[in-house]
Amino acid sequence: MATYIVLLGPPGVGKGTQAKIVANQSGLAHISSGDLFRENIKNHTELGQLAENFINKGELVPDDLTIAMIKDRITRSDCESGAILDGFPRTPVQADAAKIMLNEIGEDIDIVPFITAPDEILVERLSGRWTCRKSGHIFHTVFNPPLKEGVCDIDGSELYQRDDDKVETVKNRIQVYLRRTSPLIAYYREQGKLVEVQGNQAIEEVTRDLLDVLAKEY
Ligand code: ADP
Ligand code: AMP
After folding, report:
1. How many angstroms is it from 69 CA to the middle of ligand 1?
2. How far is the CA of 12 from the centre of ligand 1 (A)?
3. If DSSP codes are grouped into helix, strand and coil, which group holds residue 196?
4. 3, 79 in Cβ contact below 8 A?
5. Which of 73, 90, 125, 193 is catalytic?
6. Is there a catalytic annotation at residue 90?
7. Ligand 2 test: best mutation among 33, 36, 101, most atoms within 8 Å of CB?
8. pTM for the model
9. Annotated binding site: which residue ranges?
10. Record's Gene Ontology CC terms (predicted)?
11. With the C-alpha atoms ordered 108, 191, 61, 177, is the resulting torsion angle positive or negative?
12. Which residue's CA lies nearest to atom 12 of ligand 2?
């Protein structure tokens, strides 16, 4: 049986940061819907063109486009032992689709760590976030600075500030999260899959708590 983990939580809480660490340590694939959309935008694909407007406004990309993109990704061979889903599902329709696409291959979502932090922390984190152009590695000017300003420690590529990390867009993204994604908290709690993880701690402390939660499950 493979392992499928959904990382749930508001924008900026640290899902991408933690997903990359846990994927490295566990050998699970890291599937970030946001990274996939940004890659499509960078490569000027049709999906990228359709998604870009929604992303720049801090709105969600329509469910059908998002679900098709993830379905294609999750059936690739590097997901054989399972995956950490980061940023997907983000609506109840997507959550139902995630279940169906995994059930079709004899799998299911095993556990949903829900990472939490107060809104003011989210804004502070997103406004200082720097992202690597090549592979989406994540830094922060104060909390996780790169060794050399503007350069990714891991692959040497340029770091940039995402357009949707502007304060006004961030505020909208938090509202969109509350309206459209937060119903998933009850959805997964009712299925007995939700485990809360305190996100308002240092990166290593969040990783420790997350690994504890995952170790208890397996
Ligand atoms: P998400 O994927 O949930 O949107 P990220 O992992 O991209 O969040 O983190 C948002 C920003 O906060 C990044 O700049 C990252 O370096 C920083 N960050 C992540 N986790 C922590 C933490 N525990 N403490 C301080 N800063 C953090
Ligand atoms: P993220 O990198 O997770 O912060 O996502 C960046 C943006 O991509 C979001 O604000 C949305 O516009 C879009 N996006 C990412 N994942 C999804 C999803 N599961 N459903 C709809 N839109 C998404």
Report:
1. 24
2. 5
3. strand
4. no
5. 90
6. yes
7. 33
8. 0.97
9. 12-17, 33, 38, 59-61, 87-90, 94, 129, 138-139, 162, 173, 201
10. cytoplasm
11. negative
12. 55
Q: Which atom of ligand 2 is nearest to the CA of 173?
A: 10
What are the tens digits of pLDDT across the range 54-71? 999 999 999 999 999 999
Q: Burial, 44: exposed, middle or buried (Cβ in 10 Å; 0-12, 13-18, 19+)?
A: exposed
Q: What are phi and psi of 6, to 5 degrees?
A: -105, 120
Burial degree of 17 (CB within 10 A; 0-12, 13-18, 19+): buried
Question: Per residue in 73-86, pLDDT tens?
Answer: 999 999 999 999 99
List, in order of start, the domains of the chain with CATH numbers: 3-117+175-217 (3.40.50.300)
79 CA to middle of ligand 1, Å? 24
Residue numbers belonging to the annotated binding site for ATP: 12-17, 129, 138-139, 201
- The mean per-residue pLDDT over the stretch 24-46 comes to 96
What pLDDT digit, counting tens, does each position of 145-190 carry? Answer: 999 999 999 999 999 999 999 999 999 999 999 999 999 999 999 9
Specify whether the backbone of 150 is left (phi greater than 0), alpha (psi in -120 to 50) or beta.
left
Q: Return the pLDDT at 146.
A: 98
pLDDT confidence of residue 218? 62
Mean pLDDT of the chain: 96
Ligand nearest to the CA of 92: 2
Q: What is the rounded end-to-end Cα distance, in angstroms, of the chain? A: 12
> Cα–Cα distance between 64 and 36 in angstroms, integer?
15
